[in-house]
Amino acid sequence: KLDLNLVDLRQTVERLALNTPVTDMHTHLYAPEFGDLLLWGIDDLLTYHYLISESFRWSEEEYSRFWSMSKREQADWIWKLLFLDHSPVSEAASGFITILKRLGLDVSSRNLDDYRQALEKRTVREQVDTVMLIAGIEKIVMTNDPFDSAERPVWQSGKGKTDPRFYAALRVDALLNDWPLAVNELQSLGYDVQAEWTERTKEETRRFLSEWIIRMDALYLAVSMPGDFKYPADDHRNQMINQVMIPVCQEQNIPFALMIGVRRKVNPSLGLAGDMSMHADVSAVEALCRQYPNQKFLITMLARENQHELTVLARKFRNLMIFGCWWFLHIESMVEEMTRFRLELLGTSMIPQHSDCRVFEQLIYKWEHSRRIIGNVLADKYEKLHHSGWIVTEEEIQRDLDDMLNRNFWRFLGKE
Ligand code: REL
Ligand code: ZN
What we know:
Strand order of the largest sheet: 4-5-6-9-10
Bound molecules: D-glucuronic acid, zinc ion
Radius of gyration: 22 Å
Oligomer: single chain
Distance between the termini: 26 Å
């Protein structure tokens, strides 16, 4: 085995951090079989909801005017405001520049139509392959909702599982956060449920989940929760979790992923861009982990203020896997801070990042930016060990990065 001296150490860590194949365990991307649901290309990139909310800070435009524009016009508007009239220094804006650069486009030309034309020549399948290669992404977990009428037929036709690089996660937000809507949807899918919480309703909701987990081969159940999510409590969410979700997860042997701390539609005029972060109560996660020691929980939280406590909680419960720097935390300073204290509290036994991409090429920037930070923080830790005489080998560095970027997820699922 090759020992590394201090000079080589950092370079090796950085190289391996940039190149280790990744399992991206939470995205909003789709396999090509899902047709138009798979967003890609310049106009989808520029109309990303992160960039929409940043653009409105520079404009007096009516929201309704923006939403009435074509996608191409919206993209032109955002490009002018965020890239030409001001410098693209924010994470999302600089990310777009990283994408252009890695796709081999001339960033200095600032010619949007050239970029459009260059990508329009490609087929979606070519672009998916190219981007996954550039970003070093091996496996992608989608977010899948049977209540979505655009998505459902793809699963019903059996085409949802064609591409082995893509995996499903069954999203259950409506069941927990909008029960009246869920009742309608379930009824129209032929499940015998009613708004009232009857035995029959529970049974049928369990049947719905089990059937869709099997149909999608879903790796986990997932939900986003507001910051005021309470557990235990005497409410619909608690009944649904205790009597439907946990029993189904146990029976199907899959984890339950909770993404906690979002306040939806703080500014409804902004659409998807109008959601906000919200402080949450970590003791809800604590109670769940204690109550169900044999159930695995994948947890991420949106408020910076919750991160340290959540990381400490992961020291107490091995059925708790913390993951990612979610959404507004997916910025350099927060990724650096969170990765550092997570490593200090948990070693490498966590999932440092997921991308949450909605547009395919975003994989390039989201992972490149995060890989650099993870590599840098890890290199600091190895250097410190080196000074004490503990010499890590290249194989060990590779193992550690493989754990964090790939294997910890699969091991937690019991699907290594
Ligand atoms: O999965 C979620 O609930 C969130 O990640 C999304 O709602 C959000 O819009 C996403 O684009 C954030 O990155
Ligand atoms: Zn998401």
